């Protein structure tokens, strides 16, 4: 099954990608981490703030690890 993403969505500019991620956090939070693995055009800091705002710890940890903050990712997963 998994997440189905139109290939055109992968080429969105960062503002649109981040808006999409924000909406996904609100309406389909279970798919956020999987989408973050697929999408390419988003800014890490802004997207971390979005996932933290929605208290999506797994997604936040993934982004922190991607940023190189392994300790931060570990801390988030302990919440």
What does this structure look like?
With 79 residues, the chain is mainly alpha-helical. The chain has one domain (7-77). Helices cover 63% and strands 0% of the residues. The chain is built from five helices and no strands. It has helices at 14-27, 32-38, 44-53, 57-67, 70-77. The mean pLDDT is 90.
Q: Quick summary of this structure?
A:
With 79 residues, this protein is mostly helical.
Low-pLDDT runs of 5+ residues are: none
Structural class: mainly alpha
Distance between the termini: 29 Å
Order of helices and strands: HHHHH
Q: Would you report the number of β strands?
A: 0
The domain count comes to 1
For the report, how would you describe the main beta sheet?
none
Percent of residues in helices comes to: 55-70%
Please count the helical segments. 5
Average predicted local confidence, pLDDT? 90
**Shape, principal axes of CA atoms:** globular
Q: Beta-sheet strand percentage?
A: under 5%
Can you lay out the helices and strands and say which pair or pack?
Blueprint: H1 14-27, H2 32-38, H3 44-53, H4 57-67, H5 70-77
Helix pairs in contact: 1-3, 3-4, 4-5
Observed structural traits:
79 residues; globular; 0% strand
